[in-house]
Write a structure and sequence with these properties.
Elements (H helix, E strand, L loop, with lengths): L2 H13 L2 H7 L4 H15 L4 E4 L2 E4 L1 H33 E6 L4 H14 L4 E6 L2 H10 L4 E6 L1 H5 L4 E16 L20 E4 L4 H8 L6 E5 L2 H10 L3 E5 L7 H4 L3 E5 L7 E9 L6 H17 L1
Parallel strand pairs: 3-4, 3-5, 7-8, 7-9
Antiparallel strand pairs: 1-2, 5-11, 6-9, 6-10, 6-11
């Protein structure tokens, strides 16, 4: 039973006439009659009792017609949802991101929106430890995440593309004793007061920096508050080398970005990920290229 046959029997039952149903569906009465006959032969039942007065569903026919009505309604709803998704994907991007990408993502969105002001964005920030799990549950176009290749290869449902190899740094203000440093080691930061972004990957950071949790004086999602505290106090903020590189406070020297280094820098890879089951829209592909260019300009 195909879509057209379902449509034919439902319309014929409603009109109680093959001729009237054929007129409504813009086909010939003979074509409509043949379609219904073929379906009856296929199912091995009689769907309608036919007479000169019209058609009346048989007992078996009423069951088939009822199922056909349900299926046609489901198909209609599905087509509507698909159209909505297509229309949304042309003008809307839903992005999942680790906090470290916030600044560069904001710069890219502003730049992109100046060329295409009909595009809207939905950006959700997550702790990197929860990102992949949440990414698979919700309808994101793509995600931006710091991770190792080993961790990403464990996930069967995602594809990934390398964006950048960066390193962990600290941000300090002029009142910090570290402001004159070119690099700083974790051991030198043992007693430093720390402010943190609430969605930071705390466990990974603690493992790498060996920081003392008792030294964390503030956790907040208000980045402006974090930067102001760093600027006006001796507190440090852990971040990545590209996170706020182009912010005025960094460019004018109010805040300095200092790499964390032992024998070598503490490197970390940054990735773009997306679902294997979901093709990227032309909008997503175009925006990602803009994001890559922004990376090149910033670093």
């Amino acid at each position: 039973m195909n879509f057209e046959q379902m449509e034919h029997i439902v319309c014929a039952a409603k009109e109680m006439s093959i001729t009237k149903a054929a007129e409504k569906l813009f086909i010939s009465p003979s074509g409509m009659s043949q379609s219904i006959t073929q379906l009856e032969n296929e199912l091995g039942i009689k769907i309608f009792n036919r007479s000169k007065q019209g058609v009346i569903p048989t007992f078996e026919g009423e069951i088939v017609i009822s199922k056909a009505i349900t299926l046609l309604s489901t198909i209609k709803e599905l087509n509507k949802e698909i159209d909505e998704i297509k229309n949304r994907s042309d003008t809307h991007l839903k992005i999942l991101t680790a906090p470290t990408f916030s600044s560069i993502l904001q710069e890219t969105m502003v730049k992109y929106n100046s060329k295409k002001n009909d595009v809207t964005f939905e950006v959700v920030e997550e702790n990197p430890t929860n990102m992949i799990q949440n990414f698979s549950k919700l309808d994101y176009d793509f995600a931006l995440i710091p991770s190792t290749i080993k961790e990403l290869k464990k996930e069967k449902f995602i594809r990934f593309e390398h964006l950048y190899k960066g390193h962990i740094c600290i941000a300090v203000g002029k009142k910090s004793p570290f402001y004159s440093y070119e690099t700083v080691s974790p051991s030198e930061l043992i007693n430093a007061k720390i402010v943190m972004y609430k969605n930071s990957d705390y466990k990974t950071l603690q493992k790498i920096s060996k920081m003392n949790p008792k030294n964390v004086v503030l956790k907040t999602n208000r980045s402006s508050l974090l930067y102001e505290l760093v600027k006006e106090s001796q507190a440090i903020l852990y971040l990545h080398n590209f996170s706020i590189r182009n912010r005025p406070m960094v460019l004018n020297g109010d805040i300095k970005i200092i790499p964390l280094k032992e024998d070598t820098f503490f490197e970390l890879d940054f990735w773009l990920i997306y679902l294997q089951s979901k093709n990227r829209s032309s909008l997503a592909i175009e925006f990602i290229e803009e994001l890559k260019n922004q990376f090149k300009n910033n670093i």
